[in-house]
């Protein structure tokens, strides 16, 4: 019997008043040459959905978890996994993501923890076969246990580093076994609190060596999934080395890792970095490194990672504009790394939250497709940069001029006249569609 008191969620259209129905997300509907399910490749985050308690920095958890018996037993973890697949089947999500320590308990020894993970992976494999659901990506939790208080792959302690490597090795093996389409490295504590006690160069060298060893092992076991780095600027550390898209790309280039990694961009991490999601996606896309997306949003005036379900139609439209420019996902998907609010404590609120997020992205897709078909924004941008299409601009882009040549051009021509950027007009064009 389902622990979620509702039927399977169906598309009922914009006129429906049923809160447990899709108003805009219609999986098989074709938009700009792809079905909605193909554009989004929606994923469900196991950690928030099945393990999120609703706790915040000022209070304990409120969430009801009728699927848990209150223990950290392997049997409880296996039963929880079965409930999870019932949930994603009910809401029509095709993919999921997990941390090793969210699906299976941490035991007294690494060997016992590995056996526990294998036992839960047995159930995950059974449920994937039963439902047809797929693993979008897996990862290792290298930030909760006290051993990782000062980092994992950047720990000042070599024994901690070795333990983290062993944990990643096992998580990669399980991800490979489950047919995972990717593996994510999130450096939850790969950074520093103060530089007074930190050898930054040594820590970055160690992190790069860690990732090179992971690349080597990926080849050794024949894992074909994509590797991802997930940027985040701070929290819990004062500064994390994977602080934003540009920092990650710089690190990957410096240590000769870029060919092996793409980025998994999260909205709330972008805002914590002082950027927009559109900016972070664009930086990754322009570098050919946009791989996957953690779909959520934050409250800008709150100083931590609130991981809210995405409901902002400007956000989903801007996200889809970048994704459509890329032609859609080739490796990753839209993983709802989001949690229901502390006040939304009933199991059915998990259904509400995912339905609202999926509908928000469906509207964003349709709006983005309409903007691209209209063409006025693209036309304005092309016109704004037209001086680069011929003459001195084209020579610069082709590498056919020098500083001296540009000086001669500037001396021989009148003061440049710069056209208006028409920001308010462009913002108004976006509003026409939303």
Automatic annotation (TrEMBL):
Enzyme class: isomerase
Cofactor binding note of this UniProt entry: Binds 2 magnesium ions per subunit.
Cofactors demanded by this protein: Mg(2+)
Domain Xylose isomerase-like TIM barrel: 144-283
InterPro entries: Xyl_isomerase-like_sf (IPR036237), Xyl_isomerase-like_TIM-brl (IPR013022), Xylose_isom_bac (IPR013452), Xylose_isomerase (IPR001998)
GO annotation, cellular component aspect: cytoplasm
GO MF annotation terms: magnesium ion binding; xylose isomerase activity
Alphabetical GO biological process terms: D-xylose metabolic process
Catalytic activity: alpha-D-xylose = alpha-D-xylulofuranose
UniProt: Mg(2+) 1 binding residues: 230, 266, 294, 337
Keyword tags: Carbohydrate metabolism, Cytoplasm, Isomerase, Magnesium, Metal-binding, Xylose metabolism
SUPFAM superfamilies: Xylose isomerase-like
Documented EC number(s): 5.3.1.5
Catalytic residues in the record: 99, 102
Family statement drawn from the similarity comment of this UniProt entry: Belongs to the xylose isomerase family.
Quaternary data: Homotetramer.
NCBIfam families: PRK05474.1 (NF003998), xylose_isom_A (TIGR02630)
Protein name, as recorded: Xylose isomerase
Gene it is expressed from: xylA
